[in-house]
C-alpha cells in the first residue's frame, strides 16, 4: 500500500520502536524561545546532562518582548530576566540566538521559514503549539511541552506514538477576497476544535496547491485549533522556489539533490487516510469568529446561530453578542494585524492594498506588528510602510504582541478586537478582551471603517 | 517525578467544555524561569474577579472542595497552547488527577510528564460523576492506576449505571508513573542507538 507524506517523513526519522510502546523519533531542528525553554535548561543542568546537539537548535526572543523601543532596556523586570536567561543559556551552550534587535529576530514561526531553516522532509519541534506552521513545507512540525524541550535537549529525540492520519481536501475556486485565513477558519467552523485530536493532518486539493507559501503557512498554523498536532502540505515547485537561495537552504548541487529527494515525498495515489473531509472552495466566504474558540466562526454576512449548548451561551455572554444577530456594523476600537498566523509580507501587502489612499477611522487603535525584522525590511523596500503611515497607521516592532498579550500589548477589558491571530479564548488578548478572528483584509477594512463591514460588497465591485 | 499508584479523595467539579490552557494559566503569569508558584494562579481569571477578590461561586474556591485532589472537567480539556505551565499550575495547586471525556493531545502529554494523571472516561460516565460530586461534594473517588479503574461512591447515580469505569493509558507511560521514571532517563540510555541512526540519516 502507498504511503502518505506524513508516513514517509515519520518513517525516515524512527530511531527505534519500543515493543507495545512509543517510538523514538529523531528531531532535525529544534526552535526555542524565552518562555518555554528556561525550565528545560534548568532540568538538564540539575541532572548534569549536556545539550546533545546545540548546532541543531535555533533560538529567538518573541513571546514576551516589547514592540516599541526595542533598542532600550526591557522595562518589565520579569520579562527582562526571562530574556537574559535565554541569552545566558544560549551563550553557555553555543546555541545560535537571534535576540531582540538582531536582523533575523522575529516570531519563531516567521523567522525560521524565511531563513530557509524550515525544509521539506524534516522533523521540527518547538515549545509552542503553532509549530504546525512549518508543515507548509512538507515537514513534520509540532508543538511540545517543556519536558519534551528538555528531552530534545538531552537526546535530539522524542518518545512518541505515531498519530492517525487525516486529510482535508478543498477543491474549486475561491471567491475574490477569500484568503487562506478564511479557508482555515471555515474548515474549523465546520469540523470543530477537536476533530483533529490524535491526528496529523494533510491539506490537499487545488486550493492549497495554488496557494503561496505564506498562505500555506497560515493554514498549517491553525491546524492545532482543530486539535491536530500538525498539518502538512506536499512540497512542490512553489515550495522549492521559496526555499532556493535562502540563507540556510542547501546551496548549489546540494539544493538539486535535496529537491530530487523532496519530490519523492508527496502522498502516493493509493495511500489511505484514517479520516477524510472534503470541502468546496466556492462555499467559503470571508470569515469572522463570534465566540471564544476558533470553531465558533461564521461567514461575514451570516447570523450567529440562535441557540446552542452551555458552552455556546457562556461564550456569547462573554462576547456580549446575541444569538441570531449579525456582526456587521459592530463598532470596533481595536484592530491587530500580526502573529505567526498573519504577519508575513503577503499579509501586509493585502492590508496595504485596502488602506492605500484611505484614512484610518478615528475610533480605531490599530496595532500592526510585522512578524520579523526581515518582514520590516521588505515592507520598507516595497514602500508599504509609507502606505500605512499615510493612512494614519504606525508599524510596531516584531514579536508575538497582542496574540497572547504577555507584554504590554493588551486589549482593554470589554473591548472588541478584530485580530488576525489564531485564538479567541477568553482573555487571550488581555483580561476581559473580546477577540474576533479574521483575515488581514477584513482586519484592514475594519480599521478603515471603524466597524465590521461586508468586504464582499466593498472591494469586489 | 513523584510515583503514582492509587488515590482515594474527593473531587472538584468544573462542568465547562473546551477549557483551554489560557484559562488554566493566563499568559501574563508565564514570566517565571522555574516551575514554582504556578499553582497560586491556576484558573486565575475565574477564581478572582477583576478587583482581585475571590469569586466564591467558582468551585475551586468553595470550602467543600478544599481537600479535593481530583478535578472533574468538561469535554476537550486543555486545548490551546503547549504551555506546560498549565500542568505545573494544576499539579502545583495540589491536584493529582484530571477526569474528562476528552483531552487535548499536548496537555495530556504534559500532564503525564509531571505525574498528573489525565483519565478519559465516556461522556455518560462523566455526566454521572459530575452530578454526583456537585450534589454531594463528599463523594469519594478512587483511582487505581495499576488496574486502570476509576470508581466513585455515587449516591445519586441513575439506576442501572455503573459507578466504575476502566480507563486507557499507554503501557509505557503507566510504567513511568508507577515507578516515577521520566522520558529523559530513558532517552539518555538510548544514546548509542540515536547516534548510530544519526550517522545514517539524510542531510543536505
Ligand atoms: S504569535 Fe501567538 S501563536 Fe504565534 S508563536 Fe507567538 S504567541 Fe504563539
From TrEMBL, chain A:
Q: What is this protein called?
A: 3-isopropylmalate dehydratase large subunit
Q: How is the cofactor bound?
A: Binds 1 [4Fe-4S] cluster per subunit.
In the UniProt record, the gene name given for this protein reads: leuC
As cofactor, the record names: [4Fe-4S] cluster
Q: What is its EC number?
A: 4.2.1.33
- Claim: Iron is one of the keywords in the record: yes
Q: Name one GO molecular function term.
A: metal ion binding
Enzyme superclass (EC): lyase
SUPFAM superfamilies (UniProt xref): Aconitase iron-sulfur domain (SSF53732)
Give the family, as the similarity comment puts it: Belongs to the aconitase/IPM isomerase family. LeuC type 1 subfamily.
The UniProt subunit note reads as follows: Heterodimer of LeuC and LeuD.
Ranges where the Aconitase/3-isopropylmalate dehydratase large subunit alpha/beta/alpha domain occurs: 7-450
Q: Which UniProt keywords apply?
A: 4Fe-4S, Amino-acid biosynthesis, Branched-chain amino acid biosynthesis, Iron, Iron-sulfur, Leucine biosynthesis, Lyase, Metal-binding
GO biological process terms on file:
L-leucine biosynthetic process
Binding of [4Fe-4S] cluster occurs at 340, 400, 403
Coiled coil location: none
Organism of origin is Dokdonia pacifica
User: Which InterPro entries does UniProt cross-reference here?
Assistant: 3-IsopropMal_deHydase_lsu, Acnase/IPM_dHydase_lsu_aba_1/3, Acoase/IPM_deHydtase_lsu_aba, Aconitase_4Fe-4S_BS, Aconitase_4Fe-4S_dom, IPM_dehydratase_rel_enz, IPMI_cat
Gene3D superfamilies, A to Z: Aconitase, domain 3 (3.30.499.10)
Mention any Pfam family matching this sequence: Aconitase
Q: Part of which pathway?
A: Amino-acid biosynthesis; L-leucine biosynthesis; L-leucine from 3-methyl-2-oxobutanoate: step 2/4
Under catalytic activity, the entry for this protein gives:
(2R,3S)-3-isopropylmalate = (2S)-2-isopropylmalate
Primary role:
Catalyzes the isomerization between 2-isopropylmalate and 3-isopropylmalate, via the formation of 2-isopropylmaleate.
UniProtKB/TrEMBL annotation, chain B:
Pathways per UniProt: Amino-acid biosynthesis; L-leucine biosynthesis; L-leucine from 3-methyl-2-oxobutanoate: step 2/4
Report the CDD domains cross-referenced here. IPMI_Swivel
Q: Which InterPro entries match?
A: 3-IsopropMal_deHydase_ssu, Aconitase/3IPM_dehydase_swvl, AconitaseA/IPMdHydase_ssu_swvl, IPMI_Swivel, LeuD
EC annotation from Swiss-Prot or TrEMBL: 4.2.1.33
User: Which PANTHER family does the protein's record reference?
Assistant: 3-ISOPROPYLMALATE DEHYDRATASE SMALL SUBUNIT, 3-ISOPROPYLMALATE DEHYDRATASE SMALL SUBUNIT 2-RELATED-RELATED
The entry's family comment says: Belongs to the LeuD family. LeuD type 1 subfamily.
What this protein is called in its record is 3-isopropylmalate dehydratase small subunit
Q: What is the lineage of its organism?
A: Bacteria, Pseudomonadati, Bacteroidota, Flavobacteriia, Flavobacteriales
Q: Which gene encodes it?
A: leuD
